[in-house]
Amino acid sequence: MGEALGPLFVPKPQFHLLWILGLAAAAGAIGIALYALIRGRLSARLGLAGLGVLPGFVLLIADLDMLDRSKELRFCGSCHEPMAPLVASLQEVNGSLASIHYQSGAIKGDTACYTCHSGYGLLGDVAAKRAGLSHMWHELRGSYEYPLAMKGPFDIDACLDCHRHAPKFRAVAFHTDPETQARLVARELSCTGTCHPSAHPAESLNGSGTRKR
Amino acid sequence: MIRLAAALVLIGCVPAAQVLLDPTGPSAIRFTFFGTPCLLAGIGFYVLARLR
């Protein structure tokens, strides 16, 4: 998409040494496992490498790589039934909060979903990964319920993490009002869908309809 | 038992390679719910075979 605009708009390719090592280890483990399947026996050293160390390494690297790259917008949008309409709605001007942020470049485009849907700090990352596992389970079983809705209130720390430092945000009287702050801290009030537009357009929460319900 | 371990490692390595090459939701699902248990079981059966 960016290629037509020139080299400035093409993301730089990224090569990870661990990614290459992981693939090499997988190829090695597959080769040794095939040999063991055909021969029915292995020397102790080859067995340790091919059925112990290499698969363990593959497991570790694939998990780490998956955890890291699951932050990407492309990853979220690849589950077509529930998420593709949401990702598509980011990329059009529709006045939703997510679209406003994405279109104005206020969030990193490659990791737009993760930026807003992971809470603050390390525990926020852990909670996002736990939620991701639950998303994968729902996708596997086809048990998503529509319209999509968050389980609990949206974690406003994801908003405040960026906005609390901004003079423009601090200058708004409503943001510094003690009663409003108390309600926000108690999670009785959220930023989105109340004073600010809804996070996503309502029609994008109904899935793409590619799977029979 | 070595053959069983080898088969499980072989089966587990395929979704692992797939998720490394093309990290998408469906490949991550295959790796998490199918590849990971296969790899763990393969390693486990190999260790059991060595201990016997």
In short:
The complex is a heterodimer of chains A (213) and B (52). Chain A contains 11 helices and no strands. Chain A is an all-alpha fold and 213 residues long.
Distance between the termini of chain A: 33 Å
Q: Would you count the extended β strands of chain B for me? A: 0
Low-confidence stretches of chain B: none
Residue fraction in strands of chain A: under 5%
Tally of domains of chain B = 1
Poorly predicted segments of chain A: none
SSE class of chain A = mainly alpha
How many individual helices of chain A? 11
Instruction: Encode the helix/strand succession of chain A as letters.
Output: HHHHHHHHHHH
Q: In what range is the share of β-strand residues of chain B?
A: under 5%
Computed Rg of chain A: 22 Å
Can you describe what's shown?
Chain A contains 11 helices and no strands. Chain A has 2 domains: 59 residues; 134 residues, no CATH class. Chain A is elongated, with a radius of gyration of 22 Å. Chain B has 52 residues and is mainly α. Chain B has one domain. Classes of the chains: A mainly alpha (213), B mainly alpha (52). The interface between A and B is large, with 44 and 33 residues.
